[in-house]
Amino acid sequence: MSFYIQGRQGTLQHAAGFRKLARWLRSANVEIIVMEATGGLETPLFNALQRAEYSVA
User: How far apart are CA 44 and CA 47, in angstroms?
Assistant: First the structure.
């Protein structure tokens, strides 16, 4: 899964990457995340962010 956030771009492929992104989002004081549906590929990241107590739309 690719991401583009505040000028930063990257790729996440597994749960450890999702956790790293969640920590980075917390350090950047992100409060809500908007995701684009990608045929189900977004589901693992969506679930990881919800577990990290983010509002995800």
Answer: 5
Instruction: Encode pLDDT of 2-57 as tens digits.
Output: 777 777 777 777 788 888 888 888 888 888 888 888 788 788 888 988 988 999 98
| Contact assessment for residue 53 and residue 29, using Cβ atoms and an 8 Å cutoff | no
- Residue 53: closest CA among 25, 15, 28, 13: 25
Q: Is residue 46 a contact partner of residue 21, using CB atoms and an 8 Å limit?
A: no
User: What is the number of domains present in the chain?
Assistant: 1
Domain of 36?
2-56
